[in-house]
Amino acid sequence: MRLNELLGRQVVDPEGRRIGGVADVRLIQDGPLQPSMQAAFRVDGLIVVEKRATKLFGYERHVGPALLRGLVHRRLGTVWYLPWQHVGRISDGVVETRSGREHLIPLEEMPRHQ
Predict the structure, then answer these.
(1) How far apart are CA 114 and CA 93, in angstroms?
(2) Which residues of the chain fall short of a pLDDT of 70?
(3) What is the pLDDT of residue 10?
(4) 37 backbone φψ class: left, alpha, beta (φ>0; ψ -120 to 50)
(5) Are 80 and 105 in contact (CB under 8 A)?
(6) How far apart are CA 101 and CA 113, in angstroms?
(7) CA-to-CA distance for 43 and 6, rounded, in angstroms?
């Protein structure tokens, strides 16, 4: 599966209730050393947007002018981080989580860089 095939997929909880859509994929570069002498990337988690799976420009976090952030949050709704280990199954256009919405992490609480 290619990463861009995850973008836009609906995210549902184990009971099939809609949580949102995949807007982005978080990668970590800590895999095995490649011939290029760089570590391989691995999927760390998914960024899930409640209302619309759209491109994110950073304003979904606490950066930028407050008015612009407010407009972005009104359009997107809540933005969550879904750790990869909480992804249960990926099928026809749907990502199913292993747990409910209450176990997702609000993106604004995630560190920007680790």
Answers:
(1) 30
(2) 52-64, 69, 72-73, 112-114
(3) 94
(4) left
(5) yes
(6) 24
(7) 11
Structure tokens at 23: 């807007």
For residue 42, the tally of other CB atoms under 10 A from its CB is: 12
Helix/strand/coil (H/E/C) assignment for every residue in 37-64: CCEEEEEEEEEEECCCCCCCCCCCCCCC
pTM score, two decimals? 0.79
Nearest CA among 21, 17, 10, 14 for reference residue 92: 10
Classified by CATH at the fold level, domain 3-109 comes out as: SH3 type barrels. (2.30.30)
Is residue 107 a contact partner of residue 47, using CB atoms and an 8 Å limit?
yes
For β-strands 105-106 and 94-97, DSSP reports them as unpaired
| Cα separation, 57 vs 65, whole angstroms | 13
**pLDDT given for residue 52 in this prediction:** 67
